[in-house]
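Journal club side-thread
Mid-discussion, someone asked how the predicted structure for our own chain would compare to the paper's figures. Pasting it here so we can look after the session.
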Amino acid sequence: MRRRFVLAHAAVRIVLGERLGRPPDGLRLVRGRWGKPSVADAPWLHFSLSHSGDLALLAVAPRPVGVDVELVRPGLDADRLARRFFPHRERELVASGGRPAFARLWTRKEACVKAAGGRLTEGMVLPVAHAAAQATVRGPAGGPLTGPWRVADLSLPEGYAGSVALLGDGPFAVSSAVWCPVTPETTGPGIRRPGVK
């Protein structure tokens, strides 16, 4: 588990370094009030990292962004958690859809919180129940997380739920790429190490 964590954070530096045309070890990352990271001298480059199980997701965008991935855990008491934290409509969705519905709603909320650089407890009241591919969500007026955020669910392997949220209500397109470190032990037919022909 620790190895995956280290690899995910190394990937962040590599990807951001490529975007900025700098070596990964030359990036100075700083943290906001609640821990949201940013590149110290590149405030226009927004990113968010999330990992769960065997997956890690990195979102990079020109405006504040949050991403979240959750492994749908079989022992999770989704109904109890939904009753405790979610608005009424979302509790109904979890009651009928079980753990996958809970994970989908949870990742939407957490993606918004990460985009805002806020605290997860503040995001539980965000109404994120929608059936669209993308939707704009807003928190209660006067609350700590009012938004708006544009939220989209991500297509992930079975057993995972994931969402990405960007500050503002303008639609966006999600493009994805798979990044995985390739070592000499994992190279074989059909696998090409970057930079090696």
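Post-session note: The CA atoms of residues 36 and 117 lie 5 Å apart.
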